[in-house]
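Please fill in the sequence for the structure shown.

STRUCTURE ENCODING:
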């Protein structure tokens, strides 16, 4: 309840109090000729102060209110009635019970890929931003508090929330995850929000520049990607995967071997930036594995084994490649993707396949650059992995 203080202008001691429900509005609604506001349009005009109120009744000092129980003691009764229009507030939108996954990842700021990985997980498990944290049009679900990453994600079902929480905990003990070795704290609680206010969390919402992290998570070794069609020569000759993995649309990601960033930074490599021989046509999954976009490090590396002395298909040279997996589990996944005819080593960690390129010198130089970059990341990764449990 709110208290309304009223007084009759020009009449001393005429003040009185009225208690009304909070959210209701009181308006004088009767005109001098006795007519009420004719319709909602007239009411809207009155509320917007766009109507001349001189034709409406004014209270007189001789008038008295007829319902003292509304106003308490000290108000005497009279014969006149003051007509008041009460506008009730709009009915509140129904709120649904949702599940809130909240938590933290300690010392996350200086580890490459953590916030990006959690964005992907939140999107995969149909996470939503909390409208109560919205500022203007800006949403937030993941943010840094010092070096700790805070997590605040809504899910429409308890099942999605529990699966998301479980996956976060699993990532903390998964060797190839950027969360590996970090303390991950999570909880799931019931919460009420209006469904109409919810907005989905999507992986593309991740912006590396949103934080002061010294790591550049989304800038992979390839750095730049375009899409190539199934009918192009690049798709036909410069892919290592079976065509079935590209789906019915038949689109591949054309990925730099020597990154675009590196090509543009050094004048001697500018010529490789748009060279088609500095490319592999990959599925999104294979690119994730090769560039380490969702992992602490790339889970595969590729090296050149040999090159044909002359062109084999048209003007293209055959390049034999060795694909090496980080571990046996990823070796099995990678082998499922490789095109027919690959040969696996006895331990299964290496797989031999081939591509056909126009400029063998450019391809081999760019492939060697990337091989060395991944080797450096693997060495750094293994240096941080404990020798024993």
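FILLED IN BY: designer on duty
SEQUENCE:
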């Amino acid at each position: 309840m709110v208290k309304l203080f009223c007084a009759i202008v020009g009449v001393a001691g005429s003040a009185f109090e009225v208690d009304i429900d909070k959210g209701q509005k009181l308006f004088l609604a009767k005109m001098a000729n006795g007519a009420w506001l004719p319709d909602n349009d007239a009411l809207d005009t009155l509320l917007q102060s766009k109507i001349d109120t001189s034709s409406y009744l004014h209270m007189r000092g001789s008038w008295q209110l007829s319902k003292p129980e509304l106003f308490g003691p000290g108000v005497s009764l009279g014969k006149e009635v003051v007509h008041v229009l009460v506008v009730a507030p709009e009915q509140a939108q129904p709120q649904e019970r949702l599940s809130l996954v909240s938590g933290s990842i300690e010392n996350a700021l200086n580890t490459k890929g953590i916030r990006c990985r959690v964005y992907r997980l939140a999107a995969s498990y149909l996470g939503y931003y909390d409208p109560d944290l919205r500022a203007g049009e800006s949403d937030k679900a993941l943010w840094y508090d010092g070096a700790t990453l805070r997590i605040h994600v809504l899910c429409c079902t308890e099942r999605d929330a529990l699966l998301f929480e479980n996956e976060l905990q699993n990532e903390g003990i998964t060797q190839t995850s950027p969360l590996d070795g970090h303390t991950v704290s999570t909880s799931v609680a019931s919460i009420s929000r209006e469904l109409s206010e919810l907005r989905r969390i999507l992986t593309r919402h991740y912006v590396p520049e949103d934080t002061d992290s010294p790591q550049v998570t989304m800038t992979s070794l390839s750095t730049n990607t375009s899409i190539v069609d199934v009918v192009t020569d690049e798709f036909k000759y410069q892919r290592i995967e079976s065509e079935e993995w590209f789906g019915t649309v038949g689109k591949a990601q054309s990925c730099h071997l020597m990154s675009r960033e590196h090509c543009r930074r050094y004048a001697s490599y500018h010529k490789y930036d748009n060279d088609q021989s500095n490319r592999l046509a990959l599925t999104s999954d294979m690119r994730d594995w090769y560039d380490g976009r969702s992992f602490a490090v790339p889970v595969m590396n590729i090296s050149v084994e040999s090159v044909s002395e002359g062109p084999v298909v048209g003007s293209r040279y055959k390049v034999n490649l060795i694909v090496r997996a980080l571990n046996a589990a990823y070796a099995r996944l990678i082998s499922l993707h490789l095109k027919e005819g690959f040969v696996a080593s006895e331990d299964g960690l290496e797989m031999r396949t081939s591509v056909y390129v126009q400029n063998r010198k450019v391809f081999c130089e760019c492939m060697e650059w990337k091989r060395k970059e991944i080797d450096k990341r693997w060495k750094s990764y293994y240096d941080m992995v404990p020798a024993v449990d």
